[in-house]
Write a structure and sequence with these properties.
By secondary structure, the chain is an all-alpha fold. About 75% of the residues lie in helices and about 0% in strands.
């Protein structure tokens, strides 16, 4: 487990005060904020990869070919 020391500015102090106003500890608020930032970045990377795949002409051609092949296998 890592111990973290952070210098804050007025904006961060105000945000931290708001996040801890309900009794949440500073440590819990900081941990939650770090995890939220991580998830936001991770999901943004996933969205970008999905967007890239959705517009990949070679991949789209392969999907069309597989669909056409599957259509010939349908029983009805």
């Amino acid at each position: 487990m890592t111990t973290l020391t952070v210098r804050t500015d007025n904006e961060v102090d105000r945000a931290l005060a708001a996040l801890t106003a309900d009794g949440t500890s500073t440590s819990d608020a900081v941990r939650a904020a770090i995890l939220a930032a991580y998830r936001e970045r991770y999901y943004a990377q996933l969205r970008a990869a999905a967007e890239e795949a959705a517009h990949d002409s070679d991949d789209l051609a392969e999907v069309r070919a597989i669909r056409e092949e599957m259509d010939t296998l349908r029983a009805w």
